[in-house]
Write a structure and sequence with these properties.
The complex is a heterodimer of chains A (about 375) and B (about 120). Chain A has about 375 residues and is mainly α. Chain A is about 65% helix and about 0% strand. The model of chain A has no long low-confidence stretch (mean pLDDT about 85). Chain B is mainly α and about 120 residues long. Chain B is elongated and about 50 Å long. The chains are: A mainly alpha (about 375), B mainly alpha (about 120). The interface of A and B includes residues 31, 34, 40 and 88 of A.
Chain lengths: ~375, ~120
């Protein structure tokens, strides 16, 4: 059943949703061990779905199949209650995907998120002058806003920067600047470069390709001149090696990574560092769901084959997810699912496909 | 569910702020779906050196939710010996020997003749 609500209320609601997802976690005030952003998503997105009409596409069906596999994996997950909460978070992201496919315009939600990021940017500026209003895990002086981790702050800022440019919301771009300028996470910077390249490639392929060699040269020269610290890269490789060591056919089950990873940790000293994520979302998905990840391939293909600029936001998140875990951070996972859902509006609806198998089948029988 | 999570998380936060076991227990009762919340009371008992049956049970439960962490296993071993549960203590010691042979506690026990 779809309830009728005034468009103004929906618009205000979308802004409020975006704002709350971006600001819900205030460390040591609201939230200690649970990322409260997920709670906002779990609570508010279903309300939005009551007033939205979802157009089902094949992408929705593949997504539903994967979600069912995630649900099944509760049967063999390491600890059911912990797995159940992670399953709920995955379910919440699925509802965001549906919301993305149902809303007409992304700008209102992003307006809210930009406002929320503005709050973080403001707190970040205070943190720069050593006024720590909010807990900051970094001791090197990098600001982290409401995200505790400075890298997450930078990644979110860059994803938002790309999204705001793609959606032509240029007036909101300044809120992303403190997170980009004062932190400079390498993975996020790489994501920004790739996104810029994808944007340029869509407009002028030859010019974009010509830019690659001088750019690679510039990066190499920069590395040899400044020798930026690569110790975190070694740590990533250690985590990935240990994660690969633990891969199984059907996966360890939803929400099992953090608990079961130490059993396979050989390269990484678990007494010093205890990763809750694999720092590579695809690898973690394979670790937890094994061959179930295959169900995501047609979904990804369906989304990536569509030609639209919004895809650049997903490229940006995709690059970050190679080195970090944006699909486990509420705001970035929210953006990824919302945009992926939004892109499916350009996909073929499920209905015609369902009714077209009949004539095809009967034609075959005739032959 | 999200409401329960929020309230449980708030109790956990209060527990961390005021170092009061009742908050940790409440958090665990309201929202037993998150690892840190599930282990909150055990961490409290270890931090303040509380040695009783309740603490022992909490530590066993914390270990159940995180069985590959040597630190928790060593707590379980120590509490088992303190509570005269020698079977579990010896069992934990053997596991710990394999899991973390370089742990100072394990080295010391071996030096003292533990097998």
């Amino acid at each position: 059943m779809i309830y009728q609500v005034s468009p103004l209320v929906i618009r205000l609601g979308a802004i409020a949703l975006g704002f709350l997802v971006a600001t819900a976690y205030v460390p040591a005030v609201i939230g200690a061990s649970i990322p409260t952003g997920y709670l906002v998503i779990m609570f508010l997105v279903p309300i939005f779905l009551l007033v939205s009409k979802i157009r089902i596409t094949t992408s929705h069906l593949y997504g539903a199949l994967f979600l069912f596999y995630v649900y099944l994996s509760l049967c063999w997950t390491f600890r059911l209650n912990i797995g159940f909460f992670i399953f709920l978070q995955t379910f919440a992201l699925a509802t965001v995907f549906c919301l993305g496919s149902a809303i007409e315009d992304l700008t209102d939600v992003f307006r809210g998120m930009a406002l929320g990021l503005g709050v973080s940017a403001l707190i970040g500026l205070y943190q720069l002058i050593d006024v720590n209003i909010i807990y900051n895990s970094n001791t090197m002086g990098y600001p982290s806003g409401l995200f505790i981790n400075h890298n997450v702050f930078c990644e979110t800022s860059i994803i938002m920067f790309v999204a705001l440019i793609v959606l032509k919301m240029y007036w909101w771009v300044p809120v992303t600047i403190p997170g980009i300028i004062f932190v400079q996470s390498r993975a996020a910077m790489l994501a920004l470069i790739v996104s810029a390249f994808a944007w340029l490639f869509n407009r002028n392929r030859i010019f974009a390709l010509l830019l690659i060699p001088p750019f690679v040269l510039a990066i190499t020269a920069y590395y040899f001149n400044y020798r930026f610290d690569l110790s975190s890269v070694d740590e990533r490789f250690a985590i990935w090696n240990d994660t690969i060591r633990g891969l199984t056919l059907f996966g360890h089950g939803v929400g099992s990574y953090e608990i079961t990873f130490p059993a396979f940790a050989k390269d990484l000293d678990i007494n010093i560092v205890r990763p809750a994520q694999a720092h590579n979302d695809l690898l973690q998905l394979i670790y937890e769901f094994g061959i179930g990840v295959i169900l995501l391939i047609p979904l990804a293909w369906n989304i990536l084959k569509i030609k639209c600029d919004e895809k650049i936001i997903l490229y940006c998140i995709g690059i970050i997810s190679i080195f970090n875990f944006p699909m486990h951070i509420p705001i970035t996972a929210f953006i990824a699912c919302l945009v992926a859902g939004y892109i499916t509006r350009f996909d073929v609806a499920y209905e015609p496909i369902r009714f077209s198998w009949r004539p095809i089948l009967f034609t075959r029988f005739k032959v | 569910m999200s409401l329960f999570a929020l309230v449980g998380d708030q109790f956990y936060l209060q527990g961390l702020k005021y170092n009061d076991i009742k908050y940790f227990k409440l958090a665990k009762k309201i929202f037993p779906f998150e690892r840190a919340i599930l282990q909150g009371d055990a961490e409290y008992y270890v931090k303040f050196g509380v040695i009783d049956l309740k603490a022992y049970e909490a530590i066993k439960e914390a270990y159940y939710y995180d069985p590959y962490i040597p630190r928790l296993l060593s707590y379980q071993m120590q509490y088992a010996f303190l509570m005269d549960d020698d079977n579990l203590g010896v069992q934990s010691f053997h596991k710990l020997k394999v899991m973390a042979p370089n742990m100072p506690l394990v080295k010391e026990l071996i030096k003292r003749g533990a097998k």
